[in-house]
Specification:
This protein has 249 residues and is an alpha/beta fold. 30% of the residues lie in helices and 22% in strands. It folds into two domains: 5-95 and 171-245, Rossmann fold (3-Layer(aba) Sandwich), CATH 3.40.50; 101-168, Eukaryotic phosphomannomutase, cap domain (Hypothetical Protein, Haloacid Dehalogenase-like Hydrolase, Chain: A, domain 2, 2-Layer Sandwich). The longest helix is centred in the C-terminal third of the chain and has 14 residues, at 232-245. Bound molecules: magnesium ion (MG). Magnesium ion is lined by residues 18, 20-22, 196-197. The site of magnesium ion has 6 residues, from loops. Removes the phosphate from trehalose 6-phosphate to produce free trehalose.
């Protein structure tokens, strides 16, 4: 059964929002994204209306997101849930293992074999971006799988949109959301999670387990979604109506 998202009481909800492809449009590279001018204000309004029960749940590292949104003061679950940052604190590692040097070297080699592949060294993982050479997608994915194979006891490859993420086994957005839902700020609230990609599915599962609502941006509409938006702008428009039209009586 799906929830009526237009009757949500924000005071009883907790929002978990993916960033790239969900709140903002995906760009040719992660550095080239454009931040809508009213995004930070919108998120702070949502944070106020939920008494702080708002977290960004992104594949980007906490450091990366804080540089991207320097004036934003909300909780961040970074690197697909490998770390959680609360404003004023240092990021907390949720179980990510250090990436072995040999693994990074093997991934580095792929950037030499394929022109246009970029290796991103995140604090707790690695991302291999191949948006520049979409026709080579499967060859690059195969090469990444091969490079990670010797380290398969601790690390896994997670597919994303034109990216292959290498991360510690057991880390996903779902476990970060589950962890945050134990926080007094979030506990007992109805979780609402918006995402756009394969890596968000683990979050969808946890949110459903908590009786919450699942929103997907882009892709095809699905029966298991509570709401589907075509674009990040549509999601922002809906959030904006949530915070302005449903002010407390
Ligand atoms: Mg995304």
């Amino acid at each position: 059964m799906t929830l009526d998202l237009d009757r949500l009481q924000l005071e009883r909800c907790a929002f978990f929002l993916d960033v790239d492809g969900t709140l903002i449009d995906i760009a040719a590279s992660p550095q080239e994204v454009v931040i809508p001018p009213d995004l930070v204000q919108l998120l702070h309004q949502l944070q106020n209306r939920t008494q702080g029960a708002l977290a960004l749940v992104s594949g980007r590292s906490v450091d990366d997101l804080r540089q991207l949104l320097p004036h934003l003061d909300v909780i961040i679950a970074g690197e697909h849930g490998a770390e959680i940052w609360r404003p004023g604190e240092t990021p907390q590692n949720l179980g990510a293992a250090p990436i072995p040097h040999e693994l990074t070297e093997a991934l580095e080699k792929i950037t030499h074999d394929f022109d246009g592949v970029v290796l991103e060294r995140k604090p707790r993982g690695r991302a291999i971006h191949f948006r520049a050479i979409p026709t080579q997608e499967y060859a690059v994915r195969d090469a990444v799988a091969l490079a990670v194979k010797p380290f398969a006891q601790r690390f896994e490859v997670v597919p994303g949109k034109m990216v292959a993420e290498v991360r510690t086994i057991g880390i996903d957005k779902g476990q970060a959301i589950a962890k945050l839902m134990q926080d007094p700020t979030f506990k007992g609230r109805l979780p609402v999670f918006a995402g756009d990609d394969v890596t968000d599915e683990a979050g969808f599962l946890i949110v459903r387990a908590h009786g919450g609502a699942v929103i997907r941006v882009g892709g095809a509409p699905r029966a298991d979604l509570d709401r589907h938006f075509e674009t990040p702008a549509e999601l922002r428009g809906w959030l904006s109506r949530c915070v302005t039209e449903r002010a407390p009586a």
